[in-house]
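Session log. Operator J.P. requested a structure for one protein chain; no other inputs attached. Running the standard single-chain path with token output.
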Amino acid sequence: MADNTSLTNDRQEPENIPFLVQQLRTTEDNAILKQTAKLLGALGAGNSDAINALIHLVRTTPDEPTRWVGIQSLGEIGTNNNEAIQTLIEQLSIAREPTRKIAAKNLVKIAVGNQEAITALSNLEKSTSDDITRGAIAYVLGRIGKGYRHAVQALIDAIYRSEYDYTHKVSIDNLGRLEDSSQDTIKALIHAVHKAENHQTRFLALSILERIAIGNAEAVQQLTAMLESGQLDERSDYSIAMTLAKLDANAIIKLAEYSQNKHLCQVVAESLGYVDVGNAGAIKALINLLHRSQNEAILLIPAISSLEKIAVGNPDAIGTLMEMLPYRQSWDCAAIIRGLSRIGGDRPDVLNALIDLACTSQDLEECRAVAEVFGEMTVTNSQVVNALIYLLRTYDDFNLRYFATESLKVLDISNECKVEAIVAVLPTLKNSERYWDIVKVLGEIGVGNSLAIAAISNILQDCQDEAYHYLVSNLLKKMASN
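Structure written below.
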């Protein structure tokens, strides 16, 4: 047996290669073979003897871990060597799956743009009936075959021929890597959307279509037909509709206009949020769906959500929601309130309508929503503070008081105004769940304010709870130190 130390002696690296090649061809010790193959992968770049020795090892060794090291070393030094490439391609069809995966990853290192490799892999895809081999071929071609029609066609064939979802998915993913936008590729991806066994694979094909098929009439027609068929699951319907909105906004707008299917209209309403901001046709379609929501409540929330994305500041959208506000009992009042604040949050008339609602509504959900959105709006005034204080006084509700407190903290008006309002309401909130949160807000906004400091001082004197005493004491120190 050869001495392992002789593999890494002090001779210069090129002088080691003949010895390593000889060692690789003569020893039968797998440990030495692996060490030798690894060294050749580090030292033998461009050396034909080293490459040939590694090829011999890969083809002849019965020991699989030893073969893995040989394959990996060929991946380091065998770039564009056709015999090395062919050796790894052989492993894709004859070896066990772990070896195939290693061969595929190393082929990617040495065969990028190699015409012979691409042709050989394409031919192998045509002749094999094995889905594992087909998946390995797809993995390699997607990474070495960009710009080569043979690679594209092989992956298209794999999509049509693959029998297992994993191979189908790998073929789709790697076809997307080639960035081919031919009609054949688009047809194959549409086929994949229809054939896919799970949503993840279908979503992958749709995401590629979004990149390569914008405005493509056949893609739009086929996806529209799938959506209208009602044969797919709900999740897939949403994904297809969103892709359709990105490919051709007019197609999804037409569906919104003429479809009487409630589920389809719900899907369409949500997908309209993915068209270009300000799209007049989409906004009009969403407003029409809002009117329909009086009888079909499931349309309200997706329609408002999409308007929030594409119609901020749009007077027609704002006007429609304002018209709906007095009749909110029939719909989801919170959605209308949030939609108004997000679409028309910079308009004084919207602010005034919400202030009025806060002071007159008897509905807890409405008041929670108003308390929340006051902190999001870009226009504000002292009346908002009064409305929030009114809500704090009126409702002993944990969530409402949380929203009101958070909104008070961020309102863009003077801290003096907020301090006066909070100090006035604090005694009435002493037994509420949110009392100490409101005290904390007062401490944060009342730094250097004598009224706030006096109020916090009184709270500290009356506090019997050790933990809250510590909290209030620290607040007071920060307030007085500035």
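Operator note: The longest helix spans residues 466-480.
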